[in-house]
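Journal club prep, shared notes

We agreed each person brings one worked example of a sequence with its structure written out as tokens. Mine is Corrinoid adenosyltransferase. I'm keeping it raw so we can talk through how to read the token line rather than staring at a rendered picture. Sequence first:
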Amino acid sequence: MNLYTRTGDKGKTSLIGGRVDKDDARIEAYGTIDELNSFIGKAMTELDGSIFEDLLVDLENIQNELFDCGGDLANVMKERHYKMTDEPIEVMEQRIDVLMEEPPMLEKFILPGGSPAAATLHIARTITRRAERQMVTLLKQTEEGDVPLVVQRYLNRLSDYLFAAARVANSRVNVPDVEYARSAKVFKDGGRAKKKDDN
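Then the structure, token by token:
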């Protein structure tokens, strides 16, 4: 089997049921999801399994779910059977609630960083936000029903999960989160409520 096919040499790529330009909004969206998946894989290599077994299980599930998201976005057939459902979102919400109880209470905004794993999880969080913005663009350019809306909901929740996971990645190795120096005290609940900034 040859890895290269030469079929994309003129700037087109294949979807499930069609071909489009490689800079099509649909390609931008699932390509960013692929980039996100790679950074999650990197974060997993930076997490000690004896300390972060639960996060590693979460992240492996997320990697599979992101693959499902990409596959669903690549499907342009008339009869479509999507893999993603709302169930992973509900599971993720439960995990966010558990993880947010673990680190020290937040009062101020924090900067991405701390331990290597936390820094990588923050990178993944910002890529998730980019993928979500690209989903909004894609939805504006397509007919209703042509794009699975569950993918956008999943990405929105995933950015919250990655924020919580990054804080836990610091907390368990006794590395403090880095506070934004000019931040006011913005978390009246100490950061215990689910982080739903919707940015």
